[in-house]
Amino acid sequence: MNYFSCTESDIGPAIDFVWSGLNIAGAVIAASDETIQDREQTIAIGAMWGLLSGTSGFVGMSRSEACRGAKAQLADRQARGQAGPEGVGLRATGQSWSRVRVWRGSGNFTTERFRVEKSDWRVTWVAMDPGYGAQMYVSIEDGSGQQVTRGAVQGGAGNGQVYVTSGPGDYYLEITAVNLSWEVAVDER
After folding, report:
1. For a 10 Å CB count at each end of the chain, is N or C smaller?
2. What pairing do the DSSP bridges indicate for beta strands 98-106 and 181-188?
3. What are the tens digits of pLDDT across the range 131-188?
4. How far apart are the C-alpha atoms of 117 and 164, rounded to whole Å?
5. Are 102 and 112 in contact (CB under 8 A)?
6. CA 80, CA 6: separation in Å to the nearest integer?
């Protein structure tokens, strides 16, 4: 499996907790106010909605946590070459590719300088967990800060690779990412 979709956000469960608190507060207020008509019914309904919403919040939190854990495990497997499409992604596959470096994150990032020893090398990427308007751009820069090539332009989730022909030397990557998580790797052979 190269990618799957699940909800990582805790916003929904947080809303459930707020709704639960409001309903329980309403039930407590109703219990202390003798002027409320159908007071017992108001207390029971408030307590029921509070319990139901609180339970929903706990279930939602545990599922979003499980989602984050599962995606982290998938990312680790992909980085170790145990998952991914044939010859693409973060696996150092094919004719004796060897991993130079791999980075994981979200948002913008400038890598440290890395050294490529061989003339045949590539940059691979996986974009995950896309939000609205998700996109990623990777620029490959040489040691003096000159752009060697535009490595990746990715809209939403997906993966790919670009082969670099500039030869051995010192390089770094400028990663620009909006509303997604990413992994980027450099391999040589």
Report:
1. N
2. antiparallel
3. 888 889 999 999 888 888 877 778 888 888 889 888 899 999 999 999 989 999 999 9
4. 13
5. no
6. 22
Whether the CB-CB separation of 90 and 3 falls below 8 Å is answered with: no
Spatial distance between the Cα atoms of 59 and 4, rounded to a whole number of angstroms: 20
Distance of alpha carbon 25 from alpha carbon 38, whole angstroms: 17
Contacts of 58 (CB under 8 A, 6+ apart): 13
- 63: how many CB neighbours lie within 10 A of its CB? 15
DSSP characters over 42-78: HHHHHHHHHHHHHHHHHHHHHHHHHHHHHHHHHHHHH
Using CA atoms, how far apart are residues 156 and 141, in angstroms rounded to an integer? 24
**Reported pTM:** 0.52
